[in-house]
Amino acid sequence: MGDVSTDRLPRLIPRIDEQRCTGCGNCQALCPTQAVQVVDGKAIIVRQEACTYCDVCETFCPEGAIGRPFVIVFASHASAD
Predict the structure, then answer these.
(1) Whose CB has fewer CB within 10 Å in the chain, the N or C terminal residue?
(2) 41 pLDDT exceeds 70?
(3) CA gyration radius for the chain?
(4) Pairing, β 66-67 against β 42-45
């Protein structure tokens, strides 16, 4: 069969819980690609294409409002012919 194509996988970006986000700005200040900003007092991913899915925003959010979801992909085994 072969490897699983990453083209078919959804683009993953951090999820931000609006209820927990206090708009402190840590994520915006520390994001290495400026993908996240605080808008109207809440953090949002404003540049999805720039997000490298690193752990900076999640790690430094004092409220635990940012999390990185993950997808489990089961690759098919190549036959041992």
Answers:
(1) C
(2) yes
(3) 16
(4) unpaired
Q: Would you say 36 and 45 are in contact if contact means Cβ atoms under 8 Å apart?
A: yes
CB atoms within 10 A of CB 68: 15
CA distance 27 to 35: 9
pLDDT given for residue 79 in this prediction: 57
- Supply 41's token pair: 């007092």
Paired residues of 66 in beta bridges: 16
The more confident residue out of 1 and 11 is: 11
**H or E segment and range at residue 67:** strand 66-67
pLDDT at 4 over 80: no
Residue 32 and residue 52 in contact, taking contact as beta carbons nearer than 8 Å: yes
Which of helix, strand or coil describes residue 48? helix
Q: Which domains does the chain show, CATH number per domain?
A: 14-67 (3.30.70.20)
Global pTM exceeds 0.90: no
